[in-house]
């Protein structure tokens, strides 16, 4: 007699299944908050810099003034990409999506890191620092290459957000724009056992290296049901010329049972607290630019809540933020990568601190056991003949 799926502990998509322990991130649904190493994301997004948050995730404590200065200096000094990697990027077809470039770069950078196969905690912290320094530059360099522009030079004294914005969009001396981008990096840095982080931990659990785990994370985050949702959200918003047009269009899409990207969350059913912060920045940037892009986004939000009881996730308003900052659409998810690499790395380090191979079972749903078909039995004699020949050959060689 087959046991019920619930009694077997089966949950499609591992929905609600506890797969491990972590001290890195806590999603508190009751408080409508999230915590990085016990610090509220709401306070962090208001008070902290991206570099402070990256240090907190990697080194498990908030840096003091000296530690932060050293960390920022290290990030600045490591921004230059290896020359052979830049030469290789120039040979890739210009139509290649930026996310594919990020996947290649995450793997290729390991070849230039002498610590790439050192899985000590200290070495992995240095590897992670190198990646969070270089991956934003990959976006800017690739964007310049494919558009036939001069490759920008990193500024070692600038913050990560400031340099990424300048090198990719050409915009500088824009405090609110830099802060909006910095807040996005902070909010995207970590989110418990999401698909890409879990993928990274599975790879790490085999005692593979950090670069392999990060590359796996990039592959997972590329999908539109994960990191790629922000790009799909922008595609949706751009369909409409004004808020009224957006309402009519979304209602028609719902009638056709089409999926509206940027809404709903597997864990945060009652709404994503990060979305409230990104919505604030989307409104601010739209007001500065005199754009109605936010108004269109907000109307879609209102329709989805009214008609479906669904709330925007982090990606929905982030699409508006990145668009108003001037980033090309296919760089949205790569920007996500430059942030989440810290979360992946922190999880890889944590996985290794008390490792157990992640090896779940599957629930077989195929046919019952059955005999090998009669028409295939005639081949058995040939298999036995080959076995005899092999045995004879072995005796001759001895």
Question: Topology, please?
Answer:
Layout lengths: L24 E4 L4 E4 L2 E2 H7 L2 H10 L5 H13 L5 H9 L6 H11 L12 H26 L13 H10 L5 H14 L6 H11 L4 H12 L7 H9 L5 H13 L17 H17 L3 H16 L5 H12 L6 H22 L26 H18 L1
Antiparallel strand pairs: 1-2, 2-3
Number of strands: 3
Task: Give the helix/strand class.
Answer: mainly alpha
- Determine the number of helices (DSSP H or I, runs of at least 4 residues): 17
Shape: globular
> Residue ranges: pLDDT <50 for 5 or more in a row?
none
Task: Look up the CATH topology.
Answer: Citrate Synthase, domain 1
Main β-sheet, in a few words? Answer: 3 strands, antiparallel
The CATH class, by name, is: Mainly Alpha
List the strand order in the largest sheet: 1-2-3
Average of pLDDT: 91
Instruction: Give helix % range.
Output: 55-70%
Strand content: under 5%
The number of distinct structural domains comes to 1
Distance between the termini: 53 Å
Q: Give the oligomer, counting copies of the same chain as homo and different chains as hetero.
A: single chain
The Cα radius of gyration reads 25 Å
* SSE series: EEEHHHHHHHHHHHHHHHHH
CATH superfamily: Citrate Synthase, domain 1
CATH structural architecture: Orthogonal Bundle
Which key features would you list for this structure?
single chain, 17 helices, Citrate Synthase, domain 1, 3-stranded antiparallel beta sheet, 398 residues, mainly alpha
């Amino acid at each position: 007699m087959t046991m019920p799926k619930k009694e077997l502990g089966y949950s499609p998509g591992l929905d609600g299944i506890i797969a491990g322990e972590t001290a890195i991130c806590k999603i508190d649904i009751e408080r409508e908050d999230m915590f990085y190493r016990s610090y509220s994301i709401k306070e962090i997004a208001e008070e902290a810099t991206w570099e402070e948050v990256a240090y907190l995730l990697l080194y498990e404590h908030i840096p003091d003034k000296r530690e932060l200065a050293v960390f920022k200096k290290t990030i600045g000094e490591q921004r230059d990409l290896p020359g052979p990697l830049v030469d290789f990027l120039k040979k890739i077809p210009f139509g290649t999506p930026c996310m594919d470039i990020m996947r290649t770069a995450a793997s290729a950078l390991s070849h230039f890191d002498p610590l790439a196969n050192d899985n000590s905690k200290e070495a992995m912290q240095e590897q992670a620092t190198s990646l969070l320094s270089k991956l934003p530059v990959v976006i800017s360099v690739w964007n310049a290459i494919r558009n036939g522009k001069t490759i920008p030079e990193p500024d070692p004294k600038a913050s990560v957000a400031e340099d990424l914005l300048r090198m990719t969009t050409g915009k500088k001396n824009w405090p609110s724009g830099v802060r909006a981008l910095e807040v996005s990096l902070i909010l995207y840095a970590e989110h418990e056992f999401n698909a890409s982080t879990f993928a990274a931990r599975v790879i790490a659990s085999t005692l593979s290296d950090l670069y392999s785990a990060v590359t796996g994370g990039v592959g997972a985050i590329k999908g539109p049901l994960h990191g790629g949702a922000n790009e799909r959200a922008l595609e949706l918003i751009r369909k409409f010329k004004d808020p009224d047009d957006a309402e009519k269009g979304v209602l028609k899409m719902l009638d056709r049972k089409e999926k509206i990207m940027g809404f709903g969350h597997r864990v945060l059913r009652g709404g994503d607290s990060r979305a409230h912060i990104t919505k604030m920045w989307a409104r601010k940037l739209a007001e500065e630019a005199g754009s109605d892009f936010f108004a269109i986004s907000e109307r879609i939000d209102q329709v989805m809540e009214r008609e479906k009881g669904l709330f925007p996730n982090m990606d929905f308003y982030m699409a508006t933020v990145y668009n108003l900052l001037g980033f090309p659409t296919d760089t949205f998810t790569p920007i996500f990568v430059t942030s989440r690499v810290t979360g992946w790395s922190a999880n890889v380090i944590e996985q290794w601190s008390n490792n157990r191979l992640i090896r779940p079972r599957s629930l077989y749903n195929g046919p019952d056991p059955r005999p090998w078909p009669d028409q295939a039995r005639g081949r058995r004699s040939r298999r036995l003949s080959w076995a005899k020949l092999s045995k004879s050959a072995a005796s001759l060689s001895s």
